[in-house]
Amino acid sequence: MNWIPVLIGDPELCRLSLSESGPNGGGDLFILGKNLGKECHVIFRQLANNSPLNVKLEDNHGDAHPLDGANSETLVSWQKEAALEVEFSQQ
């Protein structure tokens, strides 16, 4: 299953440990980068099969997002906010 992390805030991603995961979850995703503070959020979205969007990771961060202003119910199959372990975050 392919998913798209949506990054809220002003983070700079250097590396992701995974690019896809099984539908049952249970794995760990490690995100390495800059400006990933306690105020950052990571939201996973799976685009619907009929979605006209072709969103790339580098275009998929910040407060403005291609799904904003669109009917996200028809473009996104599901979305879930990640539970971050902020004790591992370094400022």
UniProtKB/TrEMBL annotation:
Query: Which protein are we looking at?
Result: Uncharacterized protein
Species of origin reads Opisthorchis viverrini
Lineage, uppermost ranks: Eukaryota, Metazoa, Spiralia, Lophotrochozoa, Platyhelminthes
